[in-house]
Design goal:
- The protein starts with a helix and ends with a helix.
- 86% of the residues lie in helices and 0% in strands.
- The chain contains four helices and no strands.
- It has two domains: 57 residues; 48 residues.
- With 106 residues, it is mostly helical.
Length: 106
């Protein structure tokens, strides 16, 4: 097994673990009745990572736009509900990356 294949397998396992943790977190959020929207946004983002790995699409424009739009929405939601500086930076960076994906090459 060559190095590239090992990295691909490790990436797939990591993404699967992140997605599973996101689903578990969403389950807990629904049971407790708090943080459900943030948890669902986390499932969306980790689901996009699963799609990127499964479809080898991380460099595809459609994937970048969908993923970074999710980051912008998540940051915007967190900023609207908590007012945290990190959330504002996350929302702004998501918007910048969407713009770069829309107007950049490929």
């Amino acid at each position: 097994m060559n190095r590239t294949r090992v990295v691909e397998l490790a990436t797939g396992v990591l993404v699967a673990v992140l997605f599973t943790l996101s689903l578990a977190g969403t389950y807990v959020a629904v049971q407790e009745g708090t943080g459900v929207v943030s948890a669902l946004l986390g499932v969306y983002l980790t689901g996009m990572l699963v799609a990127a790995v499964a479809l080898d699409a991380m460099r595809a424009r459609w994937w970048r736009i969908a993923f970074f739009a999710g980051v912008a929405v998540w940051g915007g939601y967190e900023y609207a509900t908590t007012g945290g500086a990190f959330a504002a930076v996350l929302a702004a960076m998501g918007l910048v990356m969407v713009a770069a994906s829309l107007w950049g090459e490929g």
